[in-house]
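ingest -> validate -> predict -> emit
validate: passed (alphabet ok, no gaps, 334 aa)
predict: started
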Amino acid sequence: MMRFITIIVFVLAAFWGGWWFVGSTAEQRAVTALFARQTAEGRTATYSSLAVEGFPSRFDLTVNDIALGDPASGITWRAPFAQLLALSYNPYHFIAALPHQQTLATPDGTLSVTSDTMRASLAFVPGLAFALDEIVVVADKLGLTSTAGWGGTMDQFRFATRQMPDRRFAHEIGVEADRLTLSPAFKAQLDPNGALPSTIEQIHLDAEAGFSAALDRHAARTKPRLTDLTIKESHLTWGDMVLSATGKLTFTPDGTPEGRIDLRAKNWRAMIGAAAALGLIRPEMAPTWQNMLDTLAKSGGDPTTVDLPLEINKGWMSFGPLPLGPVPRLPLWQ
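emit:
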């Protein structure tokens, strides 16, 4: 009997070892082919080395000196390494580990990203298409510094998305940033009068997003685009200032949004200077905004709070009765 059990254990071990070897080889070839395909299609996709380890229970993929980008959009992400970890018996659930330092080059400047830890969980719908089911990203002590002159740190950043069970090609999205401390230069730019503290207590978003196609391994060919965005709940709390928003936007095939976002601003006077600093309104229009919002707030019964709809129609934006100008189009896949 003991000999029989030993043989069974040996056979199972050999089978499992063979499965790991086949699976790790297939994963390595698939990733290598993916990088080659991206390069052949004109995108940036480079690395210095690639390996799969973790025998016998895991497939641990490590890609060193990785760079991924799209020259057409001018966006390139670089990192000294990226790891994708999966249990060998569950190939549809991955854990991603990212380094303490990364860079993101954009047409508006290069963004340096630092963190104490940054990790993500990715779950896919079982099947050959590997359709995205769920993402959860958590970063502790996240720092952002842009060559464009802005930056800050936050205690924790959380991002999550999951496929909606009752709507095809749609995902629920949640974003939360706790205690975002602005760099002194950026704080002075946003709040030249020093009316607000250096730390934004929280940024929160609860939304639903619809896409034109599945977010799966065929995305490079099907090119999913955002078709609609519903903001169910959102708020930004900065000192005594609280800005909240709800509403829905739809997007035309060329990326132009249409719809309405209802904004509520508490202690709104400090927002005018920040909006001008961000280029959302022209500085010379600040007194006009001040007078208009003051009138609206008084008519609502609370002079510190104003409700204002952001209307986007036929390519133009307006805040209530005040026109803002042409709406920017959403960047699309090239």
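The chain has one domain: 62-326.
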